[in-house]
Structure formats: structure tokens, C-alpha cells
Protein 1
Amino acid sequence: MREGGSDRAAVVAIIVIWLASLLLWIQPGLTIPDAAGYVVYLPSTWIDHDLLFFNEWQRLGLIRDGLPMFRSATATGHLSDHWAIGPALLWYPAFVAADAERAVVPSLRSFARDGIVLPYNIAVVVTSAIAGLATLLIGYGVARRWYGVGASLAAAFATWFGTTLLWYSLRDSAMSHAPSALACAIVVATALRLRRNMSAEAVFAAGLAIGFAAMVRIQNAAFVIVPFIVIDAIARRELLKRIHLFIAGGVLGVLPELIVSAFIYGTPLGFASIGVRAIGWYPWTRFWGVEMLFSWYHGLFTWTPLAAIAIAGLVALWRDDRPLAIAALASIAIQWIANSSADRAFWAAISFGARRFDNCTIFFLLGIAAALARWRWRAGVPVIAACTWTMLLFFVGRHVDLNAYQTFDELWRAIPSGLADRPLALLQFVRAPMRLTTLFLIVGAIAAHALICAAVWLVPARLRSALAGLYLAVMTAYLAWTGSHDAGRVAGYQGVIDRSRRFEELSGGHDFGEQSLFENELQYLRKTGRNEEAQRTERELHELLGRRAFALQRMREAGP
């Protein structure tokens, strides 16, 4: 078979495996609070035409007794929402299509027009699933430049089944992780494009990709180093000559978040400062470097051992493309340091493995392709074993509390229960009465994306970055328009705002989400025998609960 035919067959194989996985394991729903934080932008801006999330938070059970559970009121009278708007902008076209579908299909009109129920939710989760597919296809295309079809295709399959990408594309997909994996894959692809094309459009596209990736998850901003590493010194000088275009693309890529942040916090950079302050991450108070990699509390190498093989493969990539290997290893190292220190809860709360390495997915795929191409069966056997282990955890996920620490023995004992759940049943994570409706919505969402992709494909390649920039510019203007309604509506939520500010003042700035952090850390330290550290955490927990009890008591005494 000719090389082009082999590539087409590989792409079809990836799509077939993806589609089969989707029909087996897609799971509608929202993980509270993270998924809610990402999704609320959609109904708030499209249906309510504002950036006030109070009614969405109330509907999702995140306002109790007049107090936000995970957010505080900002200086502008909004609810703090550190979850960035980037994923919502990726979901937006399908969400709007779902709203139209709900309006015209009689059987869907029974669903409330709230932007959260099944028709809207399917639009979100299918878009994230497609983001996972696109990540695999881009990764395959990049790996194919150095390695054969077989190694690159096997690496794509291994990445799907052996990393967190499958889980966050299908099982917990109303989050930022699949969009983040895609956004950073695009950053790598546009950076490599600069090797052969340093046109104004290519430089602008690279900046735009980095800006958008940062808007999906702020830690993705670290990928700004990739273009400067992967190109040679001559190309680097050319890039610096056009750095204004690179910066312009980056600003446009992140502009919607800056506009939203200005309304919510009163400053465009509020999402990067006040937002972190609002959730009690306790950044840089501890460094969990070893735990981040080797702990059974969602460690990178324990839950997804394929990542260790991939890193070894990146060392092999060093011989084939040293700059790309350096960019990959440096990016993984930066994420390791950031994830080990910027959030005290290194386990990332309700998490399947080390989900915060999502942005390195394309580098893991490249490393696996390099390992398989160079070491063949000596790498193939460990790769199959690693994927098998991660898939066993995939089926165990519904039988253990992913928010709490599970020892290896506890995970191992849960495997029979996971395998007894008919893991190959169609739409098994959808309630039986809703499966036919869900399948109809899935087909509709895929069709909508196919039309969008076909329309984009008709646009000349040199104009696609301009089209993406135009979309972000239009959405920025639209978000500014929706935010302009906020000032006239804030008064309707003044009671919640006043109670939130009063609680924050009396409790010393703590919110209700911090209790889980301390409780889970305490459980982890006790179960791993670190008693002295556990005692310190227990004291912090008691201090937190004491201040909260004091604040609530004073507020009860003061009355409504």
C-alpha cells in the first residue's frame, strides 16, 4: 500500500477506535464543582446574557443557606470563578446548536432551557470527546514525521488507553482536560510549522495557539517556550523580528478571558490572582515532587505507567530531534514542578490519575512512538502492560471514591467489581430510559461538528488562523456585551453577596472547599504513616473548622 494510503488507513483506524470507545463509555453529567465552573459560562452568557452565575450555582446546589460553597463574592458583586472560559469557547458552537435542536425537535422540548440538562450536556461532552480524537490525530501526524505508520499508530492507541485522555474525553468530559490536551497539541504543531514557514500568518498562528491554550488552563502558558526551543538559531532570529505578531496572536488568544475577568474581578488579570486566592490552593506551602509521580494518590507513574515509558522514549527522541526532545522534557518538568507546588492538593481532588499533566499528552504520544520505533517488542510489552493497568483503573473508577486516597491493595481488590460491570455494554454509563435519546443527541452533535470541520476545511489553510482569530474576536465582543448587563442585575443577588462577604470577613477568608483539602490530606498522611505531618494538618483543619463555626454563629446571631 502506498504511504498516503497507509496514513489514511491509520487515521480511519483511530477514528473507529475512538467512535467505539465513545459509544461504550461516554458518560453525561457534571463533576461538582470543577465541571460546573467551566460549564456555567454557557447558559449564563447565551441564555441569561450576563456573567452573573448565581442562578446557575443555585441550580447546581452550590449555594446553600445563602452562602456560596466554593466561591466568594468579588469586589464587583460577581461570583469568583477561577475556572477559565477557554473550554466553554470550544464547546460554544455545539452548545448553540443543541439549543436550536431542543427548540425544533418536539421530543426534546420537555427539557428545560437551562443550558445544563441532557441536550446541552451532550453537546459539551461530545465536543470534549472530539477534542480527544483531534489530539490523537495531531499527535499521530507529528509522530509520523519521524517514525513509521505502525509505531505512530500504536502510540496513538496506547495514548488513548494508557493515559488520562480517555477518561477526560468520555467519562469526565465536561472539564478542561481534553480541550487542554488539544490546545497544547496545536501549540506543538504550530511551533513545528515555524521550522519551514516563518510567514506573518504562521507566527501569528503560533501566538494565537499559545494564547488560547493559556485561556483553557493557565498553566498551559508555560508552553510559550516550545516555539523558541524547537526552531534553530536562524529561525529564532526571524521569529524575534516578528515578535509583535506573535504577541498580538497571544493577546487575541487570551482576550476573551481578560474581558470576562475584568467584569468578574474588576481587573483583566483577576483570574490569575484573585481566582487562585478564592479557592484556598495554599500554593507553594509544600513540595510534593515524589508524591506527584509515585504516590498511589493519583501519581503520574502509578496510575499511568505509560508516562514513564514515554519519558524514556523522549530520551530516544533526543537522537532523532534534539530540540523537540528538549522542549518535551522541559515542558513535562515544568508541569511536574508546578503541579507539585502550586496546589497543596497535589492529588487534584476528584481525579483519575495525574489529570493536570493533560497538556503533555502529545509529548507522551511522541515518546511512545519513539520507544516503539527504536526498541520494538522490548517497548511493546511494557506498553501493553501499562495500558492494561490503566484500563483496569478505568473500570474501577466507579467503585472507589476518586476524591479519597486509595492504597494499591484497595485499588486491586476493586478490580473484580469493575470488570463485572459489563465493560463492553453500549452506553453503559447512561440510564437505560435515556439511551435512545442520548444516542440521537450524540449523532446530532457529531454531525454538527462534521459540518463545522467541513466548512473550515473549505477555507484555504493560510486563512484558518485568521478564521480562528475572527471567532475569538467575535466572542470577545459578545462576552463584553453580555457583561454590560451585569451592573443592572447585581442588586437582585445582593443578599447572597452580603452574606458571602460577611462570612469571608468573619472566617478570615476561608471557603467551604478547603475542608475537603485538609480532610483528604489528613487521611492520606495517616494511611501512609506520616504521623507528624498528619498532626500538623489536623491542627490546621481544627483551626479552619473553628473559624468557620465562629463565622456561622455570628451570622446566625445577626439574623437575616
Protein 2
Amino acid sequence: MPNPLSDLNYDERKQVFQEIAQNSEKAFQESLSKISEITKHYDPITLLAILSTYGLTVGVGDKGIQKKKDSDFQIYQSYVELFQAIALQFKPDDLGIHPPSPEVVQELMDALTSVMRAFSYRRLNILTELDSDEEKSVVLLQEMIRGNTQIVRNWGYFSQVKSISQEIYGHFDGLLLANYGFSASNAIALFLLLMKKIEVANSDRHQIFSKLYKSKSKEELISKYYELMKEPAEHSQTFMERIDIKSIPFKSLFALVLSHYDLRLGDTYEFYPEDLAIDLGVDEAIVRKVFENFSYEFGDLEAHETEYLFLSNPIWVRPIIKIGNDKYFCVFPLVFFSFIFHSLNSLVEEIDAESLSQRRSEYLQEKVVEIIKRRFPESKTIPGLKWNFHGTEYETDLITFLDSHAIIVEVKSGKITDPALRGAPARLKKHIEEILVAPNLQSKRLKEKLEDLINNPGKADPLRKKLPVGLNDIHKIIRVSVSLEDFGSIQCNISELSETGWLPDDFKPCPTMNLADFETLFDFLEHPVQILHYLEMRQEMEGSIRYTGDELDLMGFYIQTLFNLDNLDPTANLVISEMSSPLDHFYNSRDAGVDIPKPKPVISRLFSRIITQLENRNTPRWTEIGVILNRFSPEDQRQIERKIEKLKSNVRKKWMVEGHKNMLVLVPPKNSEYAFCYVLYNDKNENRKKEFIEGAARIGLDPDNVKRCLVIAKNMDRDDLAYHFIGMFNSAV
């Protein structure tokens, strides 16, 4: 897309930003006033229930989670969170009691949408007050973090969130039970139960109204509805006579019935400790303790500054509303899981902060090893590797060896504090140094150390004896950093920080992701060579390609392109947001209990067969060969297959002719060091196979930029195998 401000000079652009900021400030104040006005007049419990039912739920069918249409109720979790916090600023006597009409609900939605948008835009004028590019970059980084904190809630797919939370904090169950009267497992189980009850209630409601919508007449619709409401039949007849339903279209009448029933939606989100204790099989006192710790009453946030609700909403750690002595209201138990690190960290830290820090660190390292072993069972992994570099001893969290690849993994379990997530510059910079920069520099040092030992095989060093493989067998080293918590998607594009001046001069970015995304990568990519290729290409992309999106978006982008970006304009900024949709659909559907096909990278049948055979045979350097094959885009792979088919036709006709064309040689662009050759022969000239292969290798290695040439040879008279020879040839230079 062209820049809409490209034709404006500096002063004109400055004026545009200032006007946007001024208009946004006005919209911000007007929208807040509208929300308060609605809260004072209409029942906030009913409004919260309606917003949540229509905005925060999705259907599930045989094809998995259903996507919302543009025409559907467009509202997001953060909007409902804001409204609940604003409502909690009012004391019970100041709250509205009137039932809201659909028009009122729409007014509230519009006001929430406006105020959320205006909150960010009203700060645009800050950019016009700064002179240096470095200052502007820092401000833009702050705004990116603030936007993420304001809107984004998912730090992993729900099954991951549950398992990671349980595995970390279940370790402290006894400690929490003794000090608070409930354990982490109790809290997790209770919020899971609330989610389940809400899902069942909404599903039942959907079934009821699906049947009502199938009524054969308007009279039948009204009669069935009054029956549903357990009202006498004569009341339905009176209603039909008074309203004159004959003049109302069926859909309008159905909408009227639905909006009337929605006034009772609050019941769906009301819960009683006694009932929940029975379902959970625990003492009622435990349920009450959980509710007390995670709830507010109306008026509790009266003194809380409304301005702060956008980036530090108290209900993120207390999403329940207490109503009276024995009733609790909760429209989004999912909020507990979105902010579970924050809420459970604070509970444990008050008792034993040191043990929590140690548990988080040990867990993260153990989990990463488990994930790697799950997909690379034959790999050799060393945790806590100690080594010396220029007279200083360092320790690498873990390094794993698979065939000719070494993968250096640094893990960081440190907390990302609230001030950093609100964009506080000093704290933000500190966390970036600790969680993103430090592990990167650490892995870079080890990579340089290993490369030095590989290039100097006679050089003695104690590190050689600590490794489970000979370094002469290692040809590729990949670095990756894994954090326990999500850092507002900064970690997936660290090179964007270069303009802030916060990165050291010798910084070389590597793939950095949170634990949940790391696990997703190793789950959805089923071929080990594709995981290695993904990480290797991510390492190459960092700092050379600008993109907007998070790690899951990058995975979705990989599915379509295999990161083949040779034709990309280097000045372009790729906007890949929402490319995670195939992954989101698969994992969210699986969490909902529906199995659908897993999304897989687009790869041709020929390349798929070659990679599978390569992995099964465990040919030396098979990982490098597989990575090279994955460097061809899906379209390139299809073109190669078509060319090979034409080549087969030529070989069938002219195999006996000296110098006949029987090989496909692909010389890479200047920025690549790999060449690819595919050789065909048949049973009758199989004795010349070695000659053909060596000839292809010489041609492939001829360009100055080529350091390695992959040669694949196939006997076209035999289709039992994907290939009959595969080998890597290195340049003599």
C-alpha cells in the first residue's frame, strides 16, 4: 500500500497528527461520558451478559470453531473488561436498573469501540514533539507494547495455557493451601468449571432458539416461547392480539422474542459456591476463598483512575463480581487464564519468591528439552553446558545436536513487569536487555566458539570432550531464544529495536519466541528438517526483512511460502497479521474437542517423498539436505516437477545419444550458497550413474557464490524409491 502521507511535507504531516490527536481526545472524553451515562441508567449485569454472549462466544461444528462474519456482533474481550471495570467504579445505589434495549446495547458497543480506538490515537501528537529518529523509535515501541497490553490476551492456545500453568503453579499447591485456603489447582479447576458451565448454558440457549426459529408460523413461535417461559397459554394469545403479529415479519418477531429473552442472560453467568463445591468435589470453604481472592464488589474501583483502566485494569486479576453474600457473577473466566502468570506469581511471591523464580527457571529448561526430544528423539541434548570464552566461564542453557546441525537454545524465565507492559521506557529497556539481548549475546558467543573449533580442528579445548559429537560432523549452527512469558510480540522481530539505540553494535538477531509458540512450532511441523529450515530462515530474515505480525503469523506465512522471499522488495514491510488463521482454527478446534486436519506447509509430492525417504534413511547430513530442499518455494517445487517430467521424456527418447540432456541444474541467486541438480538415468545406462552425478556437481559448483551443491539422481525405470542417490558436494575453495 502506498503511504497516504507521502505527498505531504513535514509541517503538513505534523498538522495531520495533531488534528487526529485532538479529535481523538474529544472522542475519548465523549465516549467515556456515554458509557457512564448508560451504566447509571441501565442494568450493567444484563449489559455485561449480552456483550459477552454475543461478542465473546463462537460456535463449534463438525468443521471446528466457526469464524465470525463481518456482520456478526463485533466486540472484543478487552472492550468488555473495560466496561466491567467502569461499572465497578459505581456503588450499587448509583447503578442503573432499567433493562437495556437492543438500541442501548448498540450505543454501548459504539462507545466502547470509540473509546478504545481514541485512547491510542490521542497520543499521536507526541511524535510531532520529538526531533531524533531514535526518540521516535522508542515512542513507537512504547505504543506497540501499549497496544498489545490493551488488546491482546492470548499467550498460547488454551490447552497450552492450562498445562503450562498447572505444571508451574501446581508445584506450590501445598504452600498456597496453607496460606490462602486454596491451591493453584483449586483456582484453575474452578475457573475451568465456570467456563464449562457457561459453554453448556450458551449451547443450550442456541439449541432452544434454533428450534424456535424453525417454527412453521408466527403463532407457533409465540406459543412455544411462552411455553419456554412457563407462562400460561392464554397469555400468549393475549400478546398476539395486543401486538398484532400479522403485521410483523417473522424475522423481526423472532428478534423481538430473542431480545426479550436476553434480559435473563445474567442468570447464565451467576454462580453459587455451594453448587460449585459439589461439582468440584471440594469443601465449600475452598470455593469461597477462591471467589474472595478473585472478585470485586460494585464500588470497589470508585477511587481507581479511569485513565489507568486501559493498561492496568484491576479485573485482569479479579474478573469476578460479588453480588450479595452468596452470589457471584463472571462473564469471562478466560481472563483468569489470560493473566494467570500475574495473578499466581503475586500469590506465591508473597510467601516464597525465591522458590518461584527457581521453579520457573527449571521448568522452562525441562519443558524445552521435552519439546525437542518429542520431535527429535534421536537428538543429543546437553543442558547447562559450561564453557570458556576469552578467559571467562559461561553457561549455555542447552545445546542439542541432530545429524550435522547444532541448535543452541537460551531460555529466559524472568517476569515481564506491569510497568514494562505499559511502556515505561526504563523498565522496558531493562527487560529487553535481560530477556531478549542477554541470551542472544550468550548464544552468539558459543556459536563463534564452536565455529572457531570447527575451523581449527587441531586446536585443543576442554569443550570438545564435553560434547557428545565430534565437531568435524557439525556443519550448521542455529541459535534460538525461548522466554516463558510473551513480550508483546517484540521478541519475534527484535531487529525493529535497532533504531531505538538499545541494541549493542555487535548484536545479531536470532529467532526468539515464548514457550507456547516454541511448542506449537515443534508440533505443527512434523518433519524435523522443516523445523530446522524454519529456524534457519528466521535467523536469516531477522534484520533483513521488515514485517508486522507475531510468531504464529510467521508460522502461517511459512505454510504458504516456506519463507522463500527472493523476489521481495527489500524496502517493503510485510503485513502478515492474521496469517495464523489456519493454525488458530486447528488448535482452537482441537481444544474444543473437534478433530480437523492439521495445517501443513505447502510442498509438492516429489519433494515430500524425497524428504520422507531422507529422514527414514538417516543419511549423513540429511538435515542439511532437507533444509536445502525446503528453500524452494511451493511454486518453484511445482515448476521443478514439471521440468523433470519433460526431462524424463527426453531421456526415454535419447538415453543412448552421447551428451543427451538428462539433468536439471538450478544455480541460485547471488545471495545463496546452494545449487541443486537433479539427474535422470535408466536401467540401460545405470553404469554411467557416477559419471552423470559428478558432472552435475561440477556444473552446480561452478558459480563463485556456490559453496555447496545438492545432487539427486533417480533411476526413472524404478519408482520404488523417491531417489536412488542423494549427496552434498562442497566447493574446493
Protein 3
Amino acid sequence: MTASPSLDVKGRIAEFPIAELLVEIFQNRLSGSLRVTHLSKKVIVYAKDGAIAHAVSNQKEHRLFSIGLERKAFDRSVLAKFPAFSNDLELASHLTGTGVLNKEQLASLTVEQIEAILISIMPLKTGEWIFSPHARLRADLDFKINAQKLLFDYARCLPGDAAYGRVRSVDEEFALNTSPEGLVLQPQEKDLLSRFEQRPLAIAQLRTMCTLSDKELFAAVYSLWLGGFLSRKGWSAAFRETNLNAMRSANLKMVNRAAELPKAAVPGPEELVNSSAAADPNKVERAEISLKEYLTRSETAETFYDLLGVDERVPVAEIKASYLVLAKAFHPDRFHRETPEQFRRIQSAFTKLAHAYETLRSEDSRKSYDFKMRKELELREKRRKEGRPEASQPEDAQAELGLRSFEEGLGLFQQEDYAEAATQLARAVHYSSGNALYHAYFGAAMSYLGDSYRHRAESELSTAVKLDPKNAKIRLMLVDFLIDMDLPRRAEGELKRFLEVSPGNREAMALLDRLSRAE
């Protein structure tokens, strides 16, 4: 019995990004096809029991012949002998049948092809998608794709704003999941993940448990969720429970072969010799910067305009031209022979580049982005008029963010809203870790949050004293904390040490005298 068409689920990429759809497919162990349409790009991703099994695209750069030429798995003379090379299945059969590739080599090449297709659709911001549980792949087309690694790498490359917008409520709850195999966490990610070992946590709770800024916290949690380390509750998923129950209970008919995509315009064998950069890497239009300069720019860029190497006042046509040159010259498919670390940087840079272009190519999204970046762009214009470097210095930006967070946190502290104060003061410490006063007030705010925060509060106050041992205000904040914790001997010790470096401080002497008489 054929399943009802009503089982299909569809939506817009702007509302449900591709990466999140892949996570839902994985976590709900779905089987079927995800059809993605963006302008002329058409892609079908096939899933089997939640795992990505295959993907096909109508884009020439993602056809098997382009991937094979790029990887030097075969040369153009092989294609010239096979007129039907634009059909991936027929080309695959020809390559193994004539001994050009063995089955293992073909499988490895196909996995790279599928991964390239998945990487290309994750950054999409617009378009439509349809998931159908009807479609099934042939058994021989089931490949093992580590989609979780691709998702994790993609998530790590997202700017903080992107993750901040996808986690819409601080009350959303995340819980520890089974850790995926083969994914290595950074120390900051390990520390954050360890917070979930005892119980599920919401963003609001996490805020008081770590020193990350909101954007950094949201980005880290979002990455861990996309990578499969965390599960998520209380969010707007694309697949509702009613859809999932219907899919699970339906008696679906197996489809014998993958659906055909509309054929892309593909050159014939004689044209291939002079074809685009996808077929011949040596014909790529050269960028004016080296790979090293490109990666450095990507990792230090403050705006999307910086990423693309254009002025914020240029027309869209120039933005597009810059993107095309950079995308052709530095596409990850051209650098598979680099070291794993270098290749990861290249993938990260390309994801950022694609995201920047997708944002700036549309008049509406560009206006929205410019509005959000208005302050930075205004400062740039001011520096430009004053003859100073347009880009702000990293230490200046960090100090400004730290001061802004401290001022907000101090106001909340004075209003006795200690939980929110601790969140803002933690950010201040993060941005300016060498500022003693920031540590002191962060510790003081933590001391009001209960016994479980006592050690963290003491640690922050002690750090503040080490940073500025002659500061009477900071030292007395630590002494007051120790007295409140019923530790008078330790409080006396702190006062004596302070008087050694700042003899004659009347407030410290009076407090020490009072403590001594109270014994």
C-alpha cells in the first residue's frame, strides 16, 4: 500500500535551516528524501534510519565527473570515451567496469561528492524544502556519511549572531546526549558539556555557571546540539509529533531507485577541455590575495564586508564579483590534500564567505545587517575621516565590551538583582580578564546566589586581590565575604597582609581591631 502524500512535510529554509532539518532527521531516525530548492540549485538528500545515505545535485561542480577531475581520480581522456558522463550512475558503472576505479576508490569519491553537496546547502538562507518518507534508495547506493561531523564543523563556523537568533528563548532546555564518535571537543566545549552531567539545563541557568558572553554561550550550546552532543526541548521543530507518528506507523512502499533531478547544462567531451574551474583547477580566476592572507582575513574580519574584501558602500554587483572570485579560488574542494587542521580552516572560511554573500546579496537582508552593524560602520566612517585605520584594534573593542558589561552589571548589583548582575559581570571578566574590579564585583554577586556558588565567589575575589593587592576596596570586599562565611581568622589574615602593603589604612586597622576584640 502506498503511503498518503499527506505524510510529506514542507517548509521554508528561512524558518527551518537545513542544518537543523538534518539534526531532526538524525534524532528521529527518519528515512526518506529531503528535496531542497534554492533559485536554480536543486538537491535531494536521502536518509535511512536517521543516517545520511546519499545526496544528488543538479549543480555541475557537484557531479561525479567534476569531483573526479578535481581529485585527479581520472583525467578528461576517460570522459571523452564515455558520452554519458553527465549521468552519475552510468559514469560510476563505466569507471568500475573499465577498471579506471575499483569499488573502494569509487565509494571514497562518492562520499566526498555527497559531503560537498551537504556542505553547499547548509549555509543557505532562502529557498524551500520538502521531506518525503516515500522515497527509498537502492541498497547499493547507501553510503556511510559522517553528517554529524559536517554539522559540528558548520556550527563552529557560524557567527555568534546566527546561533543567538536560532535559540529563541533562555528557557529552552538542553540535555546530555550520547557523545558522537570521532568528534574532538575544545576545552571550552568540554567544560560547558560537563555542566549537563547531573541534569538538563536551560540557557538561563547556564548564564550563571560560566563566564561566556551570551553570544558565545548560545553559539557553543547550538554547536553542541547540532553536533549531537546535546538533545533539545521546548523549541519549534519542523517535524511535529503527529507527523512523526504517522511516518512511523505508515506502511511505506520501497522505491527501487533514486529520483532523477533535472539535468544541469553539462558540456560535452570536446567542450570539457575548455570548461570552467570546476573541471580544470588551473583555469580558476586568480584572487588577488594568497590562501594565507585569505584565511587570516576570514579569521579576523569584523564585518561581512571585511570577509568579502569590499567597502561597505559598494553596489551588489561588486559584492557578487568579489564572492565569485574568492569562492572559485578558495573552495574547499580544491584543498583536500592539505593537512586536516588547514582543511578545517579552509572549510570554516568558505562557510563564513558563503554566509556573508547570502546576507549582502539581497537588498532587504543587507539593510537589516547594516542596521545591526550601524554603530561599527559609523565608527569606521569617523576613523576614515580622521585619517585613522578603519578597523578598530582588538584590544580596544574588548575593553569597550568589558566596560559596557561592567556598567550594566554594577547597576543590576546595586538594584540587588544578583543573578542578572553575575551574568553581566561574568562577561566583563571575560572581555577584560586583567581588571581586578570586574573580578571583585563578579565574586560579590556570586556570593549572593547560594552556597553552591561560594567557592567560585571566593576564587573571583581572591583573583581580584592578586591583581591589585593595594586596592583597599577590593581587599575589604574579600574580608567582608570571609566574615559572612564565618571565617574570622582568615579575614584577620587578609587584613594583616593588606596592612603590610598599605600600612596606615584606617578602615582596615579599625576592622582588624574589631575582629580581634570579638575573639
Protein 4
Amino acid sequence: MTSNSRSRRAAPSAQPRLLWLAIVLTTAAAAYLLPEGGWRYPAVFLLLWVLPGLAWHRREPAGNLVSALGLGMLLTTLLTLLLALLPGPLPQAALLAGATLLALLAALIPHAPTETITLERHWPVVAALAVVLLLAAFLRVTLLGYKEFQGDEGIVLQRAAAILLGDDAQLFRHQKGPVEILIPLATWRLNGLLHETTARLPFTFAGLLAIPALIVTARRWLPLSAALVAGLFLAVNGFATAFSRIVQYQSFVLLWGVLSLYHADVYRQKRNPGDLVLAAAFLAGGLLAHYDAVLFAPAVVWLLLPSLARPEQRSRGAWGAALLTGLLIAGSFYLPYALSPAFSGTSRYLLQERIGGTLWSWSGGRVWQMATLYNDTYSVVVLLLLAVAGIWQLRRQPALLLVFAIPFLFYTVVVVDPRTHIYTLGPGVALLAAAGFIAVWRAQKWLGAATLGLLAVISTVYLILLFIDSTPERQRTWETNAPRLYGTTWDEPPQYGLFGFPHQAGWRLAAGLVDAFP
């Protein structure tokens, strides 16, 4: 073979790498040179939350785009955490350079060709997936910036602002994982300005990614049609919708928790060390978002136990790498946190005020009230009935049962004040209910189709009335403006744990008056 022929063969692989290099550098330049706010924000969003994931996608099979995007968001978050732990204000140049390097990994690190998955021949699947994602996007993005920063959002952004000014202790005073601070912190540092929409979009993106993540995870145990139904159930889940519309950690717990489950099962089947490392990385990342992520751990461990129990299937190198990865990610925050003065106060708060200082506290009534506020009562009842049928269908899949049973038992019989933390039931309910739906469909197709159609319509209308329609703001005027035809077993919403609902308290007007009279 001549050198000319070798160069001709090499050209096609070099061109995409050069194109990617140009895209990343152009985006980074725009994120630095464009005026603050305005057109700078799309470049900042792409550089921080999209391009690093697409870079890793080039090293993953084509079907793992969701996993690659989730990994990219995790890497950017870890970069921001390491910079935030340094003394002094968060360095803009280091954040910009680090995010650019993360996005250049695809061009800098050689990778072998990977298999591709084509869906063009399965247009009904593509159409169904598109409908689910478009419905989810409509519920999560429409009027995203209407609601003023409220409650926990304000606390998160106050702490991010303090870190920008050089307060090194803010992450440790937060009584939660640092992710919900780090996400807007990175965006704010590069964009220069932050408002309701720009602060929330990364959380919305994570909430949307959680849906295809659940679909590809469900597909490992369920038929493709059932996996798509599970995605639909999460798309119209009230908690998943509400928390995709605010600056809080829940969307990242769901995304990284589900991806940990996915990679654990892939490792169980294929014994690829990379999947074991990713399972550990995503579970540790979820813990950085909130302690709630530990509720995914029993299912992940169950999937991995067979490879530990059989010496011939155990790879010390893979397990060592996974353990080290998980410890480095979780320890990057929790080790210095445990050594800080704030740790003892957080421990007392969690054990005494939230858990109640006992191992038994029946909170079923509170769980039911919260579940039937964020979701309509009809859909909750139908999903629970389908989930019961799904338990029988999946009785030989303990991991999926654990995804539902662990958070259900923890927040009904252990935690005295669960509030909205029952959002962790969402993936488990969706998986079990999808399995139950398939059983109904096989018995009576017309009944299955009618059930799914009515549930989707009733849930969507309810979520529009609660989270999108702001005339009136129903959560604040429930006594007179509760959604008609949607009955409840209670008269007034709970006093605490109200997030994502339309809320205007006049702060924008006040800011305008301040600007008008300098």
C-alpha cells in the first residue's frame, strides 16, 4: 500500500475531529467574547451541559447518547465543585478552560469505531418516542420563566452568589449535596447574568434526559412498547414535571440514579468494566445531588451481587476502578464536609427533624396528600393498580421491585416528614405500572388503549392547570380555584413542600422600580 493511499484512508477520520475542534473552540470563544447575557447564554449552555456529553458519545455506542450526556453533565459539575473548593472566588478562566477541555476529549483521545443503532426502519418507535419527549418538553419548558425565584431556589442562588464573591463555606452550610448550587454557579460565572429561565434550563434538560434514560433502562427487562409506556408515565409525573421547572436537585437524582441502574445491569450481562465504573460514577454523582440517591443503591447492588459471588466472574481491576471512582466522586465533597463544623448540625437536622429520631414513623397520610396534589387522584389510583399488576409480572426481577419498594417503605414507615422526597418513587412506579399495562393490553387491547389514553389526557390537563396556567395561580388560591372535576381526599394543600407552581410576589415589579429611580 502506498503512502498516498494511506493518507486517503486517514482523511475521513481526521475531518470529523477537525470539525469538532472548530465547533468546541468557536463555542468557547462565544462564551467568553459575546456580551454578558443575551446570545452568550446559548454558547455557555452548550459548552457546559451539552458538548462534554457529545464528546463522550463519540467513545460510546450510538445507543448510549443519554448516558454520554448524563456523564458530560456530571463531569462539568465535578469540575465546578473542585474549583469552588479552592480559596477565593470561582475562577472564570479555569472554568472556561476546563469545560473546553472536557468538550475536546472526543478530538484529543483516540477511539475505536463503535456499532451504530438505526431506528429509521422502526418509524412507529421513533414516532412514539418523539410524542413522549415532546409532551414532556411542553410540560416542562412552557412559561418556564414565569415563576419568580421562591423558597429553596432563593437559598440556592444566594449561596451561589456568595461563592462567586469568595465565601468558601457556603457549600458546607447547605445541609444538602452541592449539585443544585454548582449547576447555576457554573452558568452564572460564565454567562455573567442569571434569571429564572437561564438558571432553570440545565435542570429542565436533566429532567428531560431522565425520560429516555428510564426508557433504555426499562427496555432491559420489558418489551419496547412497555419501556415507552414507562417513559410516558414519567413524562406526565407531577413531581418530575415540577422539579424540572425549578432550581433544585431532584432531576439530577433521577437522571443519575436511573443511569446507575442501567449500567449496573449492562455490566451484569456483558461484564464490561467500563459499565461497572459508570454505575459507580452515576450513583456517586446522585449522592452529590442529594442523599435520596442512596435509595437506588439496593437495586444497583442486587444487580452486581452475582458477579461478586462468583470468583470466575469477578474482576479485581474493574471492581477496584469502580470503587475508587465512586469514592473519589462522593468523597470530593463529603470528606471535607464531614470535617467541617456544619456537619454535626446537618446530621441532627436529618435524624431528628426529618426522620424523627426513630426507626418507625407511619407517614402514609402525608405521602398520599402530597402525591395527590402533584398528580391528580384518578391517575394515582390507576397507576397504583397497574403497579400491583406489574409486581406480579416482575416478581422474578427483584431489582425493579427494589426501585419502588425501598423509597416507598423509607418514606412511609421510617421518615416522619417525607414532603416531596417521595418523587423518588417515580421511576419505580413507572416501571411497575408499565409492566402492569402490558398485562392489561395482552388481556384486552381495547381496555389497555383506553386506559393509557385517558390517563395521559387526564394527567396532562391536570399538570397544565397546576404548573403552566397562571390565571389563576391555583396552588395559592386552592379553596376557590382548585381544578374542577379533579377530586381530592383533603381540603387544603400541605403547608410545606410546594415547588414549581406558578408564583408571582411582585419582585420583578420592585426591581423595575429600583431601576427607574436610581
